[in-house]
Amino acid sequence: MTPLDLRSFNLFGGLVCTTMGLVLLAVRLHFRSPVQGLGHWGVAPLMAVASALLFGLEGRVPSALVLVGGNGLLLGCNIAMLAGTSRFLHRPWRWWPWLTGTALCLLVLLCFSSVWPDYRVRMMTFASTMAWVCAAHARLLWVHGRGLSARLMGAAMVWQTGVLLVRAVATWWIDRPDTQRFEPVSVIHTVYVGTFGFSVMLLLVGGLLMFSEYLRQRFEHLATHDDLTGVLNRRALATRIDQAHARWQTQRQPYALLLMDVDHFKRINDALGHQAGDRALARVAATLQQGLRASDTLGRYGGEEFMALVTGADAELALSLAEQLCQRLAQQADDDQAPACTVSIGVAVVGAGDPQSDSVLARADAALYQAKAAGRNRVVLA
Ligand SMILES: Nc1nc2c(ncn2[C@@H]2O[C@H](COP(=O)(O)OP(=O)(O)OP(=O)(O)O)[C@@H](O)[C@H]2O)c(=O)[nH]1
């Protein structure tokens, strides 16, 4: 490649990055959501572009400006990407180590440009500092990232770290003290220049994929969970019950349904208002969840009705679990946030005569009705 080719390549990469950066910033503005890091990811490629433009102006603007501005922006781009990833993954972030590292690096570049001009020291310093940022990014993605998109971004960072380190070391063999930035001194230099745009692009694609994966999970959560209590909603619970029934039919793995209704809930609403009623429901759900095993599934069945799917349970186990839940709630006192409530529970265990889960549910419902009729705050097994 001629020097001109390398410059054009640099600018082309910059233009692609601009587009992607603008896409991310538009997404950031559009989704005024708690998603963190998108703004940093969006600004980073714009810094890469500004850097490419400055390098493109070499010879027309003061060389110190190109050196400090161009390299500073390139480092800034990678640090902003790292900050974005860190925030997206909810990791703690501090600017000062990175800004200090950048300032030191730029100081060395200035010294070895105007006081003791030596391209090799500048290359070694800059490539090593960049490698430090990229390695930290790769580590962050590897340790805390999830899924293919995080792996893609991590791979881009490992690749860039490798290229930077090889370029930093190779400078003692392939460069002279007066080598020019866009001189095609070797294949590794061409790869080094090309890698910047390429890995920023891969990072951005990975970032967009990570964001869309986040959105998918968020929508899935909204579609399957009850907003007020955070437990499964009725539709999602029905799916789990159908799956449990299928396992019963194929593998004879039993399950029980605990249908729970808060006692005299209307009185709470009437006496304390609906907001206090809402808080009481959320408290009931949290207490029930704490009392269940990790393998059990809790859902909100209706207004003040909850249902627990207890897998692998016979009547004895289901009954004792239901009794414990009943007692847990009965032992609670009112607190500042929500009044205490008791529940009545109807329990039914799947049996040979249940072609569908509906019949188990109908028995649990009838048992609940009996528990209410018998005075509430109690458990009845169908
Ligand atoms: N605050 C609040 N109230 C709800 C919600 N969903 C249902 N309710 C109320 O729950 C109350 C249920 O009342 P009822 O069906 O008469 O039952 P109850 O007062 O609990 O009496 P028993 O079930 O017979 O012990 C109604 O007042 C509903 O308005 C909710 O999401 N928030």
TrEMBL record:
InterPro entries: Diguanylate_Cyclase (IPR050469), GGDEF_dom (IPR000160), Nucleotide_cyclase (IPR029787), Rev_trsase/Diguanyl_cyclase (IPR043128). SMART domains: GGDEF. The chain crosses the membrane at residues 12-31, 38-57, 63-83, 95-117, 154-174, 186-211. Keywords: Membrane, Transmembrane, Transmembrane helix. Pfam families: GGDEF. Its EC number is 2.7.7.65. The keyword S-adenosyl-L-methionine does not apply. CDD domains: GGDEF. Residues 253-382 form the GGDEF domain. It catalyses: 2 GTP = 3',3'-c-di-GMP + 2 diphosphate. It is an enzyme of class 2 (transferase). Gene3D superfamilies: 3.30.70.270. The keyword Membrane applies. PROSITE patterns: GGDEF. PANTHER family: DIGUANYLATE CYCLASE DGCM-RELATED (PTHR45138:SF9), REGULATORY COMPONENTS OF SENSORY TRANSDUCTION SYSTEM (PTHR45138). This is diguanylate cyclase. The lineage of its organism: Bacteria, Pseudomonadati, Pseudomonadota, Betaproteobacteria, Burkholderiales.
